[in-house]
């Protein structure tokens, strides 16, 4: 954008050097201002349109009309005959419907022949008629010597090929930039809506999946008459509240997610009290926003396929670490033997791993690593996220 401004300025200076001393300092200040605009709510077409009206209409055309008017010099006045500046603006207003509505509409419907015809009509016939009419109005409200300039233009001395050419280039540029920007914004909005829909579907998919697994655990405790069943139900209630309400947000605090996982590990430990179910988290957890339930599929996968269900000396070990803006979650478990009834019944992965892979692609494109490693007796999953 900045290079385009300088190029445009050089072109205008080459066409008319009368305003070079005014233009160049403004260009230098504008180049600094553009870096601020990038952070503001102003869009590129709006900024570009303002620049055209500022530099081309208010300065270039004003300077051009001053040159051809041959008016007496006014000492110590950098902006003489402001009536001419006002005329340059008013005589250009007719082109606003052209570049704001007509051109984008014709481009949208791909009526390029009509666009060419409309451009000829606008910048040849309408330009002359408009300039003559505006000059006639200004003639009524001005005095000599500037009145003579408006009188001549009202009589038809308004066919300026230089102005017609630069008008058409300037305002066609605005029209095309507005059209391209609006199309890009529409495409981006469709992609954003589609992305949000995918994320909502994936998140909704996890909720019944988690509830199914935990209710199975609750059933196992209830039939054995475990005294920990009330505590189990309370934990399950708290976790379901987190899933159903807190996880409606696009992102949650990492601390909240870790509290949820700690509760889930406690539930698994109560279900298999003789197994070793362990989750290690940092003592100081930074304030980081992450997608809700991002790590849950990996935990469920280890709980579902872990040998701790059958052997007391087996377990599940998980650890979170954050180093240099990189979040790492690692979980491993001893696996069931291939001849085990549970192993034959369950297949590793399923909904959970497919879900997490899709969510990682959507939330952390090119900023994630999911490493899965399986041997005869151990399964390890490691998720690495680059936070910035």
Automatic annotation (TrEMBL):
Positions of transmembrane segments: 42-60, 80-101, 113-138, 158-179
Domain (Signal transduction histidine kinase internal region): residue spans on this chain: 198-274
One GO CC term, this protein: membrane
Name of a matching Pfam family: His_kinase
Organism of provenance: Pedobacter metabolipauper
InterPro entries in alphabetical order: Bact_2-comp_sensor_kinase, Sig_transdc_His_kin_internal
Domain of life the protein comes from: Bacteria
Keywords: Kinase, Membrane, Transferase, Transmembrane, Transmembrane helix
One MF term in the entry's GO annotations: phosphorelay sensor kinase activity
Keyword Transmembrane: yes
Protein name listed in UniProt: Histidine kinase
